[in-house]
Amino acid sequence: MENPTLPRVRVQTQPFDVAAELAALQAGDPRVGAICSFVGTVRDRNAPGAAGSVQAMELEHYPGMTEKSIEAMVDEALWRFDIFGARVVHRVGVLQPTEGVVLVAVSSAHRGQSFQACEFLMDYLKTQAPFWKKETTPEGAHWVDARVSDDEALARWGIAARNA
Amino acid sequence: MKVTVRYFASMREAMGCSSEVLDTQASTLGELRSALIARGGAGAEALGTNRSVRMALNQVMSDASTALTESCEVAFFPPVTGG
User: Fold this and answer.
1) Domains in chain A, please, with CATH?
2) Which of A37, A87, B23, B75 is surrounded by the fewest CB atoms within 10 Å?
3) In terms of CA atoms, which chain B residue is nearest residue A92?
4) Is the pTM of this model over 0.90?
């Protein structure tokens, strides 16, 4: 059912088309009754009220390991939740504020499993996929620190993360 | 044994290279990290025990106790920050 021209896990520099991804996920499958998606976008600030503190965001990754680790996460989501499919598209390179960074989308018969699987995939990706962000600020560029709250988010699913 | 070591993000910048091939006596990732600290230079600081260093063996997230294998690919990097 999956569209072979749009693999379910991709790392790319170019923007993604959310409507095309959701259509590929649904793939005309009449069993699907729910599609849940999450899009992460680049903020122009690294603290509330600090507008303009982030001028650009550069993403580096570990080619090969990135795709492999996300594929494993999708397999884990398909095993844990009653879902039909999932897709993850993550961008790398230099991104500007308001641009999309990551898309996670899940399909299922009813909304509950899609919502849960979507959140699970994002929590997993945040702490286990080898991406690194570098912010360009008016004071210069610096690597973004990992957040302990992301490890705690993954712990809710019974998975111990020790990233941050 | 021979291993390829790769560095990413701030680790790559600190090491001044993205990869190197080493002949090592180390048998685990942790021992390899210690050997690189003992070698001195940039690694002594960047891989120091006071640093948050994550590691992978053959492109799978691993830890200090993971055993090295002949011709394996090791990676050292800071905590991940994608999404």
Assistant:
1) 9-40+64-131 (3.90.1170.40)
2) B23
3) B82
4) yes
